[in-house]
Amino acid sequence: MRRVLVPSGRVLLSVWRIMGPYHGAVVDALRQHVGAEAAATFSASRVGVPDAEELYRLGVEAGFREVAIHPCVMNIRLPACEGFVLSHLAATPVARAVAAVGSEARAALADQVSLALRAYLDGDGLAIADETNVVTALA
């Protein structure tokens, strides 16, 4: 990445810090209603990612200067689960696996996620905190 930046060019990366309540609920429901492989595929972007210390080390080792890590907590607003979960999954790498199970399994998956996230209901949707590490550096 550093080689494509102009000298003193800036880089900014956002790397998930946690699984988060929404993704955790979806992973659990996928495991139960679609299978362990689909759950593992869906969670891949949130599991095994480098922590702040590792991100800093990677940035310095890549030759970046002024590497800084900024923990960020944000509130994510999502539509009601009933209409959102299956549409969201249809746009992910697990879309084919979710489509391959029966309509009853898909409905049960959406219901399980809705039930797991009921504490985050806010109006006609959900308000869920999520966390990232924001990395800034200079080439």
Helical run tally:
6
Q: What is the top-level CATH class?
A: Alpha Beta
The CATH topology is what? Rossmann fold
Work out the number of β strands. Answer: 4
Terminal-residue CA separation: 9 Å
Protein structure class: alpha+beta
Throw out a few tags for this protein.
139 residues; alpha+beta; Rossmann fold; 4-stranded antiparallel beta sheet; 4 strands; elongated
Explained architecture:
- The structure is a single chain.
- This protein is of the alpha+beta class.
- It has one domain (2-138): Rossmann fold.
- 43% of the residues lie in helices and 27% in strands.
- The protein contains 6 helices and 4 strands.
- The longest helix is centred in the last third of the chain and has 14 residues, at 103-116.
Could you provide a short overview of the structure?
The protein is built from six helices and four strands; from the N terminus they run E-H-H-H-E-H-H-H-E-E. The chain has 139 residues and is of the alpha+beta class.
Write the layout of secondary structure elements.
Layout: E1 10-16, H1 21-33, H2 36-43, H3 52-61, E2 65-79, H4 81-89, H5 95-100, H6 103-116, E3 121-122, E4 125-138
Antiparallel strand pairs: 1-4, 2-4, 3-4
Helix pairs in contact: 1-2, 1-6, 4-6
